Amino acid sequence: MTLNLRSFLSRNNLSGRLMFAGLIILSIYIGISFLMPILISMKIVPNGEFGLGNPIFSAPSVDHWCGTDRLGRDVCIRTLAASGVALQVVFVAVSLAVLVGIPLGLLSGYIGGLLDRILVLLMDTLYTIPVLLLSVVMAFIFGRGILNASIALCVVYIPQYFRLVRNQTSQIKSELYIEAAISMGASPVWVIRKYILKNVLTSVPVVLTLNAADAVLVLGGLGFLGLGLPENVPEWGSDLNMALVALPTGIWWTAIYPGLAMFVLVLGLSFIGEGLENLISEAPST
C-alpha cells in the first residue's frame, strides 16, 4: 500500500482540507506546550498555579484577556499552560497503549491456542467497560498525578490496539505465502517482522489519533470529577469543575475558555484521524 500524504493534502477535497486543518491545530497546541515553560521560566508570564494578587473573578480586560478565576489566577495563562499538560498525558498514555497492545496482539494472533483465548477474554472484558468508568477505576487504583493519569488512560486503550492487531494478524497468518515461509523453517520473529508487522501497522495511526482525541475528553472528565491531576497543575477538567459553581452567577469566562480549548484540540485530532482513514482507504494496494 502506497501512501502519498503530500498529494492527498494538496487535493481539492474535503478530507484533505480537514486533515490539513487538523495538523495546523495540533501544531499550534504543540507550539504552545513548548513555549509556555520557556515563558514561565523567563518570568514573562505567571505559571497560573496560585493567586497572584489579581482581582477575584475579574472579567476579560486588557490586563487579563480571558479574565481571572476565584483564586485570582489568569484564565488565559492557565488555559494555555493546561494544553501542554494535556498533550503530555495523552502522548504518554497513547504511546504506552501502543507499545503494550500491539505486541500482545501480534503474539495472540500468531501463536493462538490457550494464550490467545486468555488474552482475548481479558481484553474483551476491558473493552466492554465504558471508557470513562474504566478510567475512573484506574484513577482510584493509581492515584492522582501526570504519570498515574497516563497509566490509567493507557489501560483503557490497550484493548483497542490488541483487538485490531490480533484480528489482522490471524487473517494474514492464514495466507499461503506465510504458511510456505513457516514450512521452510522461518522463525516466528522473522515472519512477524518480514510479513505481518508492516501490514497490521497501516491502520494503527487512525486509531491512535482517534484515541488521542478521546483521551483529551476522558482526562477532562477525570479532572472534572477531581480524579485527574493535582490541584496545582493546570488542567481543563478541574478548571471546568471550579467554574461550574460560578457559572449561574453570570461568570462565564472561567468555563468558556478551558472548554473551548479542549473542544478545538479534540476537533483537530478528529480531523487528522478522519483524513488518515480516507488516505489509507484511497491508497492503492501493492
Helix content: over 70%
Q: H/E series, N to C?
A: HHHHHHHHHHH
Instruction: State the distance separating the first and last CA atoms.
Output: 5 Å
CATH class descriptor name:
Mainly Alpha
Low-confidence stretches: none
Main sheet attributes: strand count, strand direction, barrel closure: none
Full CATH superfamily name: MetI-like
Task: Give a verbal description of the structure.
- The chain is mainly α and 286 residues long.
- It has one domain (13-46, 74-282): Orthogonal Bundle (MetI-like fold).
- It has eleven helices and no strands.
- The radius of gyration is 22 Å and the shape is elongated.
Strand and helix layout:
Blueprint: H1 5-10, H2 14-41, H3 75-111, H4 113-128, H5 131-142, H6 146-173, H7 176-183, H8 188-200, H9 204-224, H10 236-246, H11 253-282
Compose a concise summary of this entry.
The chain has helices spanning 5-10, 14-41, 75-111, 113-128, 131-142, 146-173, 176-183, 188-200, 204-224, 236-246, 253-282. It has 286 residues and is mainly alpha-helical.
Question: What key phrases describe this protein's structure?
Answer:
286 residues, mainly alpha
